[in-house]
């Protein structure tokens, strides 16, 4: 996607509610922040204050932790039973975007 092609792309949000500008700010990518702002980007209105953004990030970290625990349990069970096919199947369900 070209940034200049459509100004509205700077307002798109990902599945977690963050805009490209939000992500650039959170990763301290100053050059990207400046580029996005020069094309009219704005932070997500879903997170009007630092606390709401922090709460969302904490929720995402907790969710990721649960996924890691679930996958660990699955791998342990598969190792105990001598088969990793169940664990590999779980990985494909958790992260289907790795099939590129």
Describe the model.
This protein is mainly α and 100 residues long. It is 58% helix and 0% strand. The protein has four helices and no strands. The protein starts with 19 loop residues before the first helix and ends in a 6-residue tail after the last helix. The mean pLDDT is 77. This is Ankyrin repeat and fibronectin type-III domain-containing protein 1. InterPro entries: Ankyrin_rpt (IPR002110), Ankyrin_rpt-contain_sf (IPR036770). One of its GO terms (cellular component) is extracellular region. It is found in: Secreted; Target cell membrane.
How would you summarize the topology of this molecule?
Blueprint: H1 20-26, H2 30-38, H3 50-81, H4 85-94
Helix pairs in contact: 1-2, 3-4
GO biological process, one term: exocytosis
Keywords: ANK repeat, Exocytosis, Membrane, Neurotoxin, Presynaptic neurotoxin, Secreted, Target cell membrane, Target membrane, Toxin
Subcellular location: Secreted; Target cell membrane
Task: Please describe the structure with a list of short key phrases separated by commas or semicolons.
single chain, 100 residues
